[in-house]
Description:
With 145 residues, the chain is mostly beta strands. It is built from one helix and ten strands, in the order H-E-E-E-E-E-E-E-E-E-E. Strands 1, 2, 3, 4, 5, 6, 7, 8, 9 and 10 form a ten-stranded mixed β-sheet that branches. The longest helix is centred in the N-terminal third of the chain and has 16 residues, at 2-17. The chain is globular, with a radius of gyration of 19 Å. Copper (II) ion binds next to strand 8. Residues 40, 69, 80, 102, 104 line the site of copper (II) ion.
Amino acid sequence: MKIVSALLFFVVGCGQEHTGDPIVVRDAWIREPPPRSPAAGYLVIENRGGESVALVAVATEAAERAEIHVMEHKDDRMTMRRVAKLQVPAGAEVALKPGGTHLMLMELRQPLRDGDEVELVLRFGDGTERRVQVPVQKKGLYESD
Length: 145
Ligand SMILES: [Cu+2]
């Protein structure tokens, strides 16, 4: 019996080790901005875990600060509004994409051009961080990929 329980323990422990990162960030890109303008960034956050997580901060060497913006209908026009966090429910994914929620890199430290790569550090409500290398791409205003 001792061997069996040892085996069980091994299998369970092994399974937990291989579960992987419950937060997956993918398909990230930054639109090449017009001169002297902030740059918009897009990505998909996938939450494979059993608990809701929130993106609470974004940092990058490329800009003075990075904000989370949502689009809002106001007086018949779409405007951007900064939000403090972005919730990703358990088992769901949230896509930041053109025309919707996006990241905004404010006060760029140098011009961003097509082909450049920017590192973004995404901080989540559970205190963990994910680093993503994000390509800068030149695309039309409503082109999404
Ligand atoms: Cu914005």
